[in-house]
Amino acid sequence: MSLKDRAKATAKNIEGKIQETYGDVTGDPKNQAEGKAKQMDAKIKHTVEDVKDEAKKALD
Known about the structure:
- By secondary structure, this protein is mainly alpha-helical.
- The protein has helices at 3-26, 29-59.
């Protein structure tokens, strides 16, 4: 995974944490759910790219 892609996924994770926290503070379940979804999306992107990196290492 390129450094740029990792940075984007990390930024999305942070954005999700902020949105979830905002939802917690304001009692807004929509923001809580959207924040959690962004965090999950970022986690999936990291996992997929980690698998790609490991497969590339195995082939080298």
